[in-house]
Structure formats: structure tokens, C-alpha cells
Amino acid sequence: MRRRILSIACGISLFFASAAFAAPKSLVRVGGLSPAQISHLATEGYDIPKTGHGFAELVLEGPQIEAFAKKGHSIKVLVRDLDEYVKKVKQTQTKNSAYYTYATMIKKLNEWVEKYPDICRLESIGKSCEDRDIWALKISDNPGKNEPEPAALLMGAHHAREWPSIEVPMATAKKLLEEYNGDPEITRLVNEREIWIVPMVNPDGVTYSMEKSRMWRKNRRNNSGTYGVDLNRNYGYQWGNVGASNSGSSDTYHGTGPFSEPESCAMRDFVIREKFQASISYHTYSELILYPFGYGYNIPNPDQKIFVKMAGEMAKFNGYDPKNSAELYPAMGDSDDYFYGERKILCFTFELCSTFIPNASQIPTFNQLNVPAAIYLIDKAGTYGIVNPDGREEIVNNLSLDSSLRAITDIVELFGSEGNVAMRNEALKQLEKISLRTAGIVVEEIKSGNAEALDKVKAVPQASLAMSFIRNRVLFEDAHRSSQYRQDLIEKLKN
Ligand code: 0X9
Ligand code: CA
Ligand code: ZN
User: For 61-88, b where at least 16 C-beta lie within 10 A, e where not — what string?
Assistant: First the structure.
């Protein structure tokens, strides 16, 4: 995908002259960097929105730029004054095309709850530092009940200034609600999944970035003297100093300890309660789909195959690059390492767009690119999301016939010819459980003289294990109590 340079690089000397007065934060492309130097920059706590072959794009103040230039690195100032830049972006907003604020988000969420009370409900999952509610919208049939259905989570705005990250989960919610009972695929997902949308994990930071300091990233924790903790460094799995800072003034300050912040605690407690199978955390920018682990290079990930498959499929919708998180740069304490490392959630970080905050006129464009990827994830929460046996028993035992056949198809296609024996066995164990569930449903249908369920399973070649379970049971029982089943159904089973 073509990336647009934001503004023409201006003369460095001119730049320093003005920087001496104002000291604005700038977005700068620093070149001549080795991969080791890039990861070192992350460790030193630099704010690095993007990395690439031999370069990194950094948020820097004047003297820092000078220091890089002195060391002989090539410097390209992409955005001279980020605050000014965002002010301009704000001016591109019109009545019909504007970024959600905390207030307009709440208004929209409440409108939806009023309009679609049968398929959604709103809940505050906790409070921010400044006592704002962190809102979560649940979209599912029987939204008041906790049902044993695969659960998916979409989150926006861990980082304050990354406004598009609020839009994509909101647009996905809109599609699910508006197309329920219209589009059969959407209807199926709303009925058979528990979908949760937390569009603004960091409401204080977002509000601050919209009203005061436009390039604000962190929450608004008072660190006595400085402000803010980077919520994407505060989660409690491998919390530490790589790609995160000890200093309260740093943009990647990781807090006084793991889960020191009310916002990250709210998310932790929420994911423990809802037992999600899959999630996306939206950020900007770089047009990437990242998967764990991110706290260091080459950390073994037993579900790598599923992550690579899902990231690759989602990339087909938005054209982004799928890659391991640490390959962007290693950083400790992000949400995904906790979600996967501690909770086994198939979690992804999307780095939306090619700038922090594109003009408001771009909102429909990046939404259109990304909503289908979110829908894909919500679907696969119920197939790849149940391969891993942790806590999935109840879900498997309540799968509908259609859902179980979809899960079987995906698992067989991904792991059917897997060479790694341990991995294959793990998947097969779960395949067996899902096949037993499938057989259970079909045998009941056969008992009541209904052929439809059997026909459905027969039509899915990957479901041969389920078929053999069905045959074994029905033919065995038939041999012992000869008249119990309709003869034409027995014939169907035999051939
Ligand atoms: O640094 C971050 O938190 C994310 N990028 S952003 O520009 N939105 O700040 C990326 C996190 C990916 N995770 C790791 N690299 N561990
Ligand atoms: Ca439900
Ligand atoms: Zn971010």
C-alpha cells in the first residue's frame, strides 16, 4: 500500500531556529539504523509509530532531532508540529464526518441500546483515573444473559491520540446492529457469538488529546510532577523495561507496577469474566496486523499457525502487512501479551492507517477496509477460537450444528496435514470433542426421523470423524433394537 508523506521536509537549520522558541513535537524519519539500533530505541522509551528497513519514524523534540543528526543519521521531518497538524485535522471535521469524542460516543451507544434493545446492552466495566466510565457495548441475542457462545472483543483507544481506533469498533458495532435480521451472515454472528465493543479504553487521554494536547498518548495518571502511564505498557504479563520506560515523563512510561492503572485493571477483570476467544486492539498507525508475542524476539507461540492464518486472512480485507509484534519493535506490558500469554485469547493489534489521525473525510474509507476484517475475527472466534481447549468445554457442548461444522472444516483444513505431531494431536483432541457434539445433535435428529441434519454433515467432507461417530452409534443401536430408526435413514448412513 502506498504511503503518503505528510508534509514536505523542511530545512533542518530553519527547523532548529524555530524549535528553540516553541519546541513542538515533530514526527521525524530517522535513517541509517540497524535492527539492533531500532530495538534499542524502543528500549530507551522512544515513541516509535513506525519502523521499516533501516529507519524508524519517531516523535521527537528539537534537541533530540539535533542529537540524531549529529550522530550522522539521515533526518526527514515528516510533520514539523504535530499539535498544529492535528489542529488542522480537526478543522477537516464536518457535521457529517467527525471523529467520535467521549460525549458523542456515549450518545451513540445509548441511541443504539434504545433502538436495538433485543440485541445489545451497555455496561460500564470500570472507571478511569479521572472517574470517567469505560463503556462496553455487548452485541448478542439475549444480551442480558451470559450464554455459552464464543466471545469476541474489539477495543479502541488504548492510546489517546489514535482517534481512528475508536471509529473502527464503532463502525463494526453499527454494521452488526443495523444488518441484524437483514444480512443472514450478520444475523448468525449476532445470534451465535457474544460480541463486546470497548471503543475507548482510555477516555481521559482521548479527551485530553481532543481538547488540550493533541498528541497526547497515555492516560492521565498524576505521577506527581508528570502525567500519564502508557496503558499499552501496563499489562501484567512480562511487564518490564524493554520498549518501556521507568520515567514518568516518558511517552512509554509503564507505571509503578503491572496493572497499576484503573483502565488496564478494568480490561483485565473484564477479559477474565468474559473468557474471550478472540480480540482486536486498534491503534494507529502503520497499516499492520500484529500478533503476539511482543515482549521479545522469537518467543515461541504454540498457536503461531492459527495467528498467521488469521492475520493473513484479515490482511486480505485491508491490505495491511501481517507480522509478529516484536518485529515492529519489542515492548513489554502490552495488552496482547497479557491476553494471549495469560488468557489464551487469539488477539491481534491493528495499526490502522498511514498517519495518527487522517483527515475526517477518510473515516468511511478506513472503516470500510477494516470492518470486514473484524467480522472475520468474530466468526473465527467460534472456529480457531475453540481449538485451544482452555475453558472452551461449555462452548463446545452448546455449539449449533452449523457452528460445529464450520469449526470442524476450519480445524481440519488448518491442521489436517500438520507435520508437528504435538500441534496436530492438540487440534485432533479438540476436533474429536466437536465431532462428538456434532454426532450428538445428529443422532437426536435421526431418532426423531429427521434427515436434514444428517444430510448437512454428509455434505461436509471434512466431517468424516463426526460421520463415523454417528454411524457407530446409530448402526450399533439399530442392530440391537431393530425397528427404532427409519429404514431410509439407516440406508443413508450405510452408503
Ligand atoms: O507501541 C505500541 O504500543 C503499539 N504501537 S503504537 O504506535 N500505536 O503505539 C504497538 C504495540 C505492539 N506490541 C509490541 N511491539 N509489543
Ligand atoms: Ca447470546
Ligand atoms: Zn497505539
Answer: ebebbbebeeeebebbbbbbbbbebbee
Cα–Cα distance for residue pair 265/261, rounded to 1 Å: 6
Tell me the per-residue pLDDT of 372-396, one tens digit each, with 9 for 90 and over. 999 999 999 999 999 876 657 899 9
Q: Where do the domains of the chain lie?
A: 2-80, 90-386, 399-494
CATH code, residues 90-386: 3.40.630.10
CATH architecture of 2-80: 2-Layer Sandwich (3.30)
What digits encode the pLDDT tens for the residues 283-338? 999 999 999 999 999 999 999 999 999 999 999 999 999 999 999 999 999 999 99
Nearest atom within ligand 1 for CA of residue 290: 12
Cell of 495: 452408503
351 flagged as catalytic? yes
Q: In this predicted structure, what is the pLDDT of residue 389?
A: 66
Low-confidence stretches of the chain (pLDDT < 70) are 1-22, 389-391, 482-483
Between helix 164-178 and helix 102-115 the angle, nearest 10°, is: 10
Centre of ligand 3 to C-alpha 269, Å, is 21
Catalytic residue among 162, 167, 351, 426: 351
Ligand found nearest the CA of 332? 1
List Cα–Cα distances, 281 to 103, 271, 339, 358, in angstroms. Answer: 21, 13, 10, 19
Q: Is the CB of 331 under 6 A from ligand 1?
A: yes
Q: What pLDDT shows up at residue 345?
A: 97
Q: Which among 158, 18, 85 has a CA at the least distance from the CA of 355? A: 85
pTM for this prediction: 0.91
